[in-house]
Each structure stands twice: as C-alpha cells, then as structure tokens.
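Re: folding output
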Amino acid sequence: MDTPLPSLNTIAVVGLGTMGTGIAEVLTRAGREVIGIDISEAAATHAVDALSASTARAVQRGRLTEQERGDVLARFRTFTDLQAAAPADLVIEVVPESYEIKQQIFRELDGIVRPDTILATGTNALSVTRLAADCARPERVLGLHFFNPAPAMKLVEVVSSVLTAPAAVAAVTDLALELGKEPVAVGDRPGFVADGLLFGYLNQAAAMYEAKYASREDIDAAMKLGCGLPMGPLALLDLIGIDTARTVLEAMYAASHDRLHAPAPILRQLSEAGLTGRKSGRGFYTYEAPGSGTVVRDALTPLEGRQLVAGRPVRSVGVAGSGTMASGIAEVFAKAGYEVVLAARSQEKAEAAKSRIGKSLSRSVDKGRMTAEAAAETLDRIVPAGSYDAFAEVDLAVEAVAEDLEIKRQLFATLDKVCKPGAVLATTTSSLPVVACARATSRPQDVIGMHFFNPAPAMKLVEVVRTVLTGDDVHATVREVCGKIRKHPVDCGDRAGFIVNALLFPYLNNAIKMVQEHYASLDDIDAAMKLGGGYPMGPFELLDVVGLDVSLAIERVLHREFRDPGLAPAPLLEHLVAAGCLGRKTGRGFREYARR
C-alpha cells in the first residue's frame, strides 16, 4: 500500500444477519464505532434490538454498567445504503455466499471508501483472490472469517491472497487481538483451516446417515460421547444451515476434486426441499418452530425403551486380555455388580491386570467417587485366570486382545470350544470385521461387536456392531447389558471404522495433509479446531495421544475397505511411523515430549 494504514477505529459491517450482528456486537463492545449496513430495514432494526438485548443481559450479569451499555449502543448506527461506509477504516462484508453479490458490493465500495480503507470478506467458502482481483485495489482485500456465535467464539481466520499487502494483514491481525480473539493466518483456499477440516467430516456423516448405516441420533451421540464434541455432526449441519454447508462443500470440491468433499446427495435433496435446518424448522431433525433449537419428535424419532426381542440373562462375564482396555472393561462390569473372570495367556498376566484395576479403584476412592468398601467389593468380584477354560460358565465373553485378525480368530475358535451354549461372544475390535471373528466359531449368530472406548471406565460410549449373522436376541442382550453398566449403546453395521473411527480418522488424515502441503502449521490447525470447532483436542494433539502407528493402521483399513483415494494415508504419517516417531509413547510424534 502507498499510504500508511490508519488505526481501525471506524468499521462498517455489511450484512446484518446473525453473523454480521454478532461481529457488530464484538466491535462496539471493544470501543469501535460501527456502521451497520443492510438493504433490509427489518434486518437493521433486528440487529439493533439484538444488541440492546445482549447488552441488557450483560448488565444483569454484572459484565457491563448501564453507562457502558449506553456507550455501546451509541457506537452502533445502522443504514440501508452502502454510501454510509464512506468514513470506514475497515469494511467487513458478511452477505450471502455468492460471488455475484460479494463482487457487486466490493465494486460499489471501490467508489465509496478511501484508498487506504481495508476491505474484508467474511466468506468461509469462496476465493478471496477471485474477489480481490475484481477490485480497483486488490492489495487491500483480505478474508476475515469469524465463527458463529461471534461474541463467544475466539477464533478468527485471517486470509491472505497472493495480492494482499502485508500491512493490511498486520492491521486486521492487531485488531483481532485487541478484540480478545485468537487470529490464525491462513492462505486462500475453500474452507480455510477450520471449515476445510470440519465440512469434510460433516459431509461424511451426512453420507453415513443417507446410507442408513446408523440413525441420526446414534451418529450424533457417537461423536459427542466418543470424541467429546459439543454437538453431533447432523445437529451441527442443522445449526449451520444445510444450504450453507452444501455451498461450502461445492466450493471445496471444485478446488480439491476430492470425493470426500463432493456434497452428499441428501444435502442437495434437503436444500432443494427447503429443509435447511433450524432456520426453516426442519433439516435432519424437526424443530419446535423455525429458528428454534428445540428438537421435537417426528416419524424418525426412536421409541424410548422399545425392545422387540427379549435378551438372554447375563450374570457372569468373561474378559479376555491383560492390557489397559481389558482391565478397564473388567472394572466396568465388576462395578456394575457382575461376576467377572479376567483371563490372560498366563496367571501372572491376569494377576497383573487385576492389580491395575485395584490401583484404578484406589484412585476413585481417593477422589471420593466410591467408598473403600465398594472398591473392595468390586475387586473381589474379579477372578484372574491363566486359561480361557475359566470361561466355561460365563454368560457373556468379551475379548480385548491385540488388534490382529489372526489372533482374534484363534481366540474365537477357542471361545467356541470352552464357552457354554447360549453364551454371547463379543469383540472389542475398533476396525476389523466382526463377521471374520464370527466365522471362526460354529455359532456365528452368538457373535457381536462391543466396541468400548479408552479409558473404558470413563468413556460412556459403546458401539454395538451387528453382523449379517448376529441373532436379534444377542443384539438385545448387549443393549440391555450396556444399560446396566451405564454406557450409551449406538447401533451400527459391520464395516471398517464403525461410526466414530470412520468419521474421525479421515478428518485427522486431512489435517496431516494440510501440514504436509505447508498450508498451515500444527499449532495453528490445533488452535483452529479447538477454538473454531469446539474440539477438546486439536488433531495433532489427538494423533500423538492415540499413537501414530495405531492411527496409520486404522487409516489403512478404511482405505482398503472403501477404496476412496481421499482416504489414502498421508505420506507424512507413514514417514513418521517408519521413523519410529509414534507419539507420546515414544517421546516424539508430530511434537516432541519430555521423557519421563
């Protein structure tokens, strides 16, 4: 830029929908003069009313004084004509995601604002470069992508095109920091970081639902309980707007040609039917009224407690394995009052696993979660055994041995011999075909997947995986047992990754590709997903915790089953695993960790 940049004190916000109104609130409360512009007088009035209501709540909560509230409201003026932007130091447009509409606004602004005024687009899907190239001064155009709701969400993506002046980027980055936000610098590609990762995952979830692989309630519950997400993907699509999601995905697909970004047909069908989510009152779910967040029953809502088939009685449980997962599952069953046989390849390994459970129970006592008496009773219910022959009388056998199909098949062949007729045989596999375990027995109808999540005592989710051969009464038995051990069961079919891993690992793989392509740094991607997506951990934090070798194995299974080129493991992940950098357990993965 030829002239020095002014301080950004007067800011015009063009488009006073939910996002524009939220940005205006953030700016006025931070002391900026805000010119709100919308062609609709009703939208402008609504924006003033919304700011009035939110600042009134802030006064009630003691976050603002009445004087401060009056000052905030005085700093917000609304207009219906773009000419009002003339005195602005910065203009932020948040109008609908359309090149035609945005380009028209920028062309008009070229003739209205000063030569040194920065023009920012709030797009999350369109090319900033294409918008800038049409302007008289492309060097002053950039992307400033806030997240909804803008007053609450900390992340702001600052998007540069190849034409953007560094001084403009520096000015808006400083502004974001002054607003109390966390700016992340990214390049110009559809979806940027947060939405680039988020929308691929949402699209996969929509496709999973469309394929009738799992119910909408089970998909959403699985991702909330299995990954700690604040909302399930289908509920989130309804919140974002299904039409908006489709627009973002179409832009991403046009740029990437990655089939994972090709919008699932159901998104087009719902959009064209006007079923765009909460704003229309119906999307994947049905809502009380347009704009309401309250879900109401519809034809797809499952009936509570409806069990068409009676389950088998389960009094005693066998757990096969001696690792963390096996001991965690044994602890869960013993706490729920079941008699548990914990069997491993040797008596010594089984005793060590029981000892680990004892330490876990002691920690629960120390934290006041259970009494010492209850802990002792729980531990007494667990009988360690050095042979699977000890499973002769159990009603349910759950294996948690190595994630190796041959090992599991051999174990199921053994269980087939030692377990009594009518016993339910369950595998905790997270990625292998359950039916392959079932076919290793003479009673495949008794075999089912029961995928617990680590750590089993803390994690509420169990994926209940039926094969084409699983008996209805076996399925009913496992769902009943899940209720008794206070876990939330979700039903899914026998295919790689089930619900959680099939949605989680492509997202993690795409994050690795972003780093591999030098699009964004590990730290910026982790920050973007925590601050912009509400994820409890960023993708690289999570990969290092899970283990890069485990992650690679799951990604290979998904790629082999679904044959989608977009699911091929990122070469960077393969290189790190080959180098022995497996995450926290080896002291180095995507990051380095202090040796303990």
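--- second protein (sequence, then structure) ---
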Amino acid sequence: MTSTAHDHDRRGTDPAAPDGVDDLPYAQEPDAVLERLGTTTSGLSADEAAARLRTVGPNRLPTAPRPSALRRFLSHFDDVLIYILLAAAVLKAFLGDWVDFGVILVVALVNALVGFLQEGQAERALDGIRTMLSLTATVRRDGRWTEVGAETLVPGDMVRVRSGDKVPADVRLVRATNLQVDESALTGESVPAVKDVAPVGADAGVGDRASMLFSGTIVAAGTGSGVVTATGARTEIGRIQALIAAVDHLDTPLTQQLGRLGMLLSRGILAMAFVMLVVGRVVHDFALPDLVSAAIGFAVAAVPEGLPALVTITLALGVQQMARQHAITRKLPAVEALGSVTTICSDKTGTLTRNEMTARTVVTAERTYAVEGLGYEPTGSVTLDGSPAPLAEHADLAALVRAGALCNDARVTAGDDGRWTIVGQPTEAALRTLALKTGADTAGTQRLAAVPFESAHKLSATLDRLADGTLRIHVLGAPDRLLDRSTTQRGPDGAPVPLDRAHWERTIDALGAQGLRVLAAAQRAAAPDTSGLALEDVATGLTFLGVVGIVDPPRPEAVAAIADCHRAGIAVKMITGDHAGTAVAVARELGIVPPGEDVQSLTGAELEAMSAEDLRRRVRDVDVYARTSPEHKIRIVRALQSHGEVVAMTGDGVNDAPALTRADIGIAMGIKGTEATKEAAEIVLADDNFATIERAVKEGRRIYDNIRKSVVFLLPTNGAQSLVILVAVLLGLALPLSPVQILWVNLVTAVTLSLALAYEPAEAGIMDRPPRSRKEAVLSRPSLAVVVWASLLIGGATLLLYLVEQQLGADDAVARTAAVTMLVLGQMAFLFSCRFLNGSSLTWRVLTGNRVVWVAVGSLLALQLVFTYAPFMQSWFGSAAIAPRDWGLALLIAVGVFLLCEVGKVLARRMRA
C-alpha cells in the first residue's frame, strides 16, 4: 500500500464505520460505501445523527493551542547576549547602582518589545483554512431534505449540492448531473473538475478522485448528492491543516548567522571578563566591588545590545521598500532570506500562468489560425501567417467561431477595476472571448433548445434559429466524441465533404503535445419544423468544423523574471497539480529550462514510489513536478534543503500552505491566493506577479549587504569600548568609561549612524552574482579584519584622549566625557569608511548618494551635545561640559581614524585576494 493510501486508511477510520473496512470510498461502489457507513440514500434519522455527532464531534477544524502574549514576549529574552546584559543588571542591583540597573534593564526591555511587535503570527494560517469551510448544508434527515448548520454533519449523512454551493464535508457521490467543481484551491487545477459516481482506482491522487467532493471546494456547475464520508479534521482540508501544524519551522540564514555570532561573542566576553578579574585581583589587588564594576562595564561594553534593534530596523525599512514594489512582508527575517534564495519552487496555476483560459490556436480543414491576446480581455486579433484574418474573408473560421459562440452559456464582463471576469465555464469563456476578438455577429439568433454538457457524453448542443430563419444545430465538446458523431467536414466552398478522421486525430495529438486543451465544434442543419433537441439528435450526421486549442497562458512578465532568476544563479522549479503534459509544455514556454533541452519531470505517482534517498538524488535535476499532493510538495522542499538549498515556495491554493510553511521563504499570491496561503506565507505578492519575486530577491540582497555593512560598523563600537576597559584594568588605571556611558554610546550610534547604512542603494551588478552560501558568515575574514582594525583604532584614540585630558588637569567627569565624545566621532568617521566596504571611500561619492547619512550625523551630534551639556544627562550619566578645545582635538583624531581605516580596508582586500 502506498503512503497516500495508508494515510487515507488511517484517517478514515471513524466510529460510525464497521471495524476492519478499508476506507477508500472513491474506489468503491456507492452502495458499498453506504453499507459501510450504515446508511441509505434516505439519509439518517435525527436521533442517529445526534448520536453520531456525540461520537465523532462537530464538523469543524480543531483550534491549535497558541502561546500566550506573555510567553511570546518572554521568548525574545532567549538570547545569550541578553542573558549577559540581564546578569549585569542583577549585579548592579546588588551593588545598589540603581541608575545603571535601570538603564541596562530598559535596553533589554526595548529590544524585546521591538521583536514582539514585529513578529509574524504564523498560527493564523489555521484560521485562514477555517474560513473556507461551509456554514450550512442541505441534508436529508428523517426522509426529508432540510438545511442545517454544517457543523452538525456526521459520516453517513446524505447531502446535496448545486451550482455556487460550498461543499460542507468530504462526500462520496451517489448521484451527479452535469456536476463540475472548482478544486483549484485544493489541487491547483485551473479548470473545474468533472465529477461522476463511478469509482476510480485506489491509487488515484486527490485531483483524480472524480467520485468525491471535498470540503471547502465550490460547485461550479450542475447538481449532485452523496454520502458524507469524513468531517472536521478527517477531511482532506483537515489533513492539510494538520500538515501545517506539524511542519517544523526553519530559521533563516541571517537568524542562524547572528545566533552563531552571538554565541562566539558571549564566549569571548566571559573568557576575557574572567581573565580581567584574575589580573585585577592578583596583579593590581583591586577591591572586589571595583573589580565587579569593571567586569560589568566590560560585559556591557562588549555586548552589542544595539544589534537586534539595528537588524530589526534595517529589515523594517526593507519591508517598506518592498511594499512599494507590491511585495508585502509578514515576517521580518524573510526580507533578508530572500537574498540568499537558491531555488524557487512555484505553483503553476495563477502564479506562473494567468488562470484565465485563452484560445491560442484555431484549426479548420483548410487553415491553422493563431490567436493573439491573453486572458479574458477581448483584445488581440486572429491571424493567418502573421496577417489579420477577418471573418468576412475566412468563412471556415467564421463558421467555427460562430458555433463556439452560440453553443455557449458563458459571459465575459469588464469590472469597475478594469479586470475582465467570467460567469460560466472557463473553456466556454475562452470561446466567448475569441468571438469578441473576431467581432463574430450572433445578433438575431434565437436559441430554441439545448442539450447541457454532461460528463457521460462530454458535449453540449443547441438548436438555434439563425437571422435568415433557418434552423441549425451547433455542437461543442471533446474532439473524440464529436468525431464519432461526424460523417463529414466543412469543405473549401462550405459544402460538406467526407471526414478525414486520421488528419484530425494527428492535429489533436499535436495540439495536446503543446499542452493545449482541445475543444471541437460541429453543426448540422435541422428541419424547419424542429422544436426540441435531444442527445439522440446529435448521435450522427454532424459536419465537423474544426478544433480550438486552449491554454492557461504564462504571464509574459514571469518569462522575463525567470530569465533574471537564472542569471542570478537561482533555479526555478514548477510544482503543480495539473497534468504532466500541460505542465511540461508551459515550462518550456516559460523558459524554466534553456531552449533545446528536454524538461525533466516527475508525477505524483512516481514521487510516491520513490524513497527519500531516491528523491534526494534526483530532486535538483527535475524541473517539473505534476499531479502533486501537499505531502509531495513538502517532500520536494525537504529534499532540496538537504542539499543546502535555500528554498522559496510560491502558491495560491490551500494545497500550497504546508509547503509554504516548510520552505525557507513562503510566497503567496495576494489577489487569487486563499487566506490560508497568505497566513502561512512570509511574503504576499499584492499584484500576483511572479516578476515581483525577482525584484524582491534583489531587494533582499541589498538589505543583506546593508545589514553586513551595519554589523561591520557597529561592532567596533563594542570592540573599542571593551578594549578601553580591558587595557585600563590590565594596566591598573581608573575606568575611562562607566557602564551607563557605554550603553549611551551603543544606543545612540545604533539608532542614528547604523540606521543610515540601511538606506544605502544596491551595489552595481548585485543580480549578476550567485546566491550567497547558507554557511557564509555574516562577518567574512576580511570584514572581521576591518572590525578588529577599527576597534583598535577607535579604542586606542579614546584611551589616548582620556589620558591626554588627565595630563591636562581635567577632572574625571570631563576626561570621561571627552572619551565618550571621541568614541562618537570615531564611529562617525568609520561610518563614511563603511559606505564602500569593497572599495575606497576616498572619493567625493562618499558625501553623496545617501542623504540619510547626513541626517544621522546631525542627529548624533545633537544627542551628544545634550549628553554633554544638559544637567539632567550629567546627573544620569556622570557627564560634564567640555571645552571647544576638547571637541577640536577629538575631531582631529577622528580624521586620522578615517584615513587609517582606509589603509586597513586595502590590506583586508588583499587578504581576500
């Protein structure tokens, strides 16, 4: 038994069913399913339904437990660097330094609050699925049809549905009349599925179970009735909900890198603090309170507490920028992770294609015509060898188009927003749009009778009185069914000639090989006194008019976006519930594989038979996955991730939600996507445009570059401060900086100068380089060398100015304030150096291109003036007013720091080479 069948067997065991009965209702005759469920076509009695409801529970999806707001808030303290800060605060409280305690605690609280407010609520994906469930149902109870709340349905209930209804539970059909169901949200199929009561194979996938209706899908046409086989969590949609809840969440590459960086920093901080304590006690015989204060100062200096806020702000600014480009970000880390994507797994229908059936090719006995335009908007023309083909000059085309327009119940209308929508069947709407493009005149034609489409005969027919008063039967349907009923075909002069069936079969096969759905049209004259129409009237004697090739066309912008992704080293794979032939044809047209190469594909059935290791070996070589289920999509994503791929998964149906949750980045369609898909995704495309993904990837790469620049810029602040404290203790000097002064510098530089780098424009050629490796460190070895060099320069300058001020007779408060000023101006100089990490900043361009740099510099200078001269700041932070001479000396040293940083960058670039 396959794993899918096993899942259904296990899922379908309900208390209402006899023990030991295999639960594959779609593969059994209706009578067998009714007997197994202990019911009949007359339905259950109200008492029996109530008893079963008490046993199986209500027909609704269970609510998953969610962590409380307090627990989610406290989770943001779960960081080793924050632990060090909190420990420092506790020690300050024991020493009675309440101002220091308060400042340290506020910093930790602010960081946690920012994370709490910005985090995405992924659990809402489950709520999004619940909104898909029907509220009411028409059920047969006590022998009468009645409307009840859908939550009261139980296995064994008989329900009926009609066009427009939302299916209230999983139902095995007992009767069906012209029944078609839109299952696109569940299977990804772009065309409504035709339903029938006949059983299907036990190994049939969800999209091939024609004898079943699934909870949450919508009836597009016809009527049907059947027996409820599963409710609530046992339905297909309930199983998808369980998949979402069970999917393990993956940290983004940046989250992992920052976690590793935090762990390395914490170990280094603790080790150096221990060495400092030993040296201070053994060598210099410091008093224990002084040593503890020095250790706390060192820890506070070394911890980059501004880093979480810096990353959050940079990502938030990226979110705003992406929103302007129609990519709505629900979870901040997703912005950066987009920049490291190596593979995009995309759903086909509505994502790479328009989900609007379009007539592309018209073939008559004489000619083959091409149809321009996409979707339901009636723009474009029909051409022959590249030239317009007006109906007045092409009677063969006119006859076929007119037949398709008359034997048609669909309507195409323009909405207030300019978008064209349909009422009726998508394939019929494609023919209606074709008629509008050609200007076919059907005015004055009166329909007298019709044979509706049914899956049993796969055709529809109408009896029409034409404008000249003659009667004609028009037939539209599957080509093989119309060929069986045709004896002639339309000749060059319009008169019937013998049917060339072999020619038409070759034509139909060729169109099918292109991924086109093929519809045929035929006609015959009717006697003047004919008033009715039955299926027997079109059993033979038809004149075959030709065929129309219909396709759900690729989005033109998706073709260009896929080419851009390939140029950026990103693979694109199609994962769809559609048939393999259609999927492969669309993949070729989209350029998912280079021209001239064969498209490698796998079907869901082939996937089902493969082991995890077999799939892992093939997954990177396969471009198209067809007839897939939600479990298959998760397996594909996991197999790609096992190779170290950073996977983005796009989709619009609820069937995509579990894979979106598992992928590194889930991307949902905002217009046509279900609420469940949007809530499961990190990114929602407001314009449903695949090209937006490419722009979002570029933005993600820019943001990561800016985060890296910001980290390189921020760390020397901590490095310089901790170096000052360490050297002071090792040399037996008084501390040049107090812990609260250190926190002040960290915070003001993080929210002013660091913020400026978030606005840096993208570097040239950013989309010509391959995706960065997941294992690549935030700080590369050359970047780390720049950080160490800048830390030594800024720290040395700070200590130098502190000692100079003491030699000039300044008191400790003034000397410390001068040291803080030196730190600030040193960071300001380093900011300009960091604008061009990969090149020289000794250029006039360093002063232009990012006006936020100057806003940040002005803001920082204003804050530093407040720190220096405001009495309340002097009271809180122990600062003091300094003379203009001190400012001038600090500024002069800062210029030297900038020039020496440029020398360090040259040496670092040579290290990379």
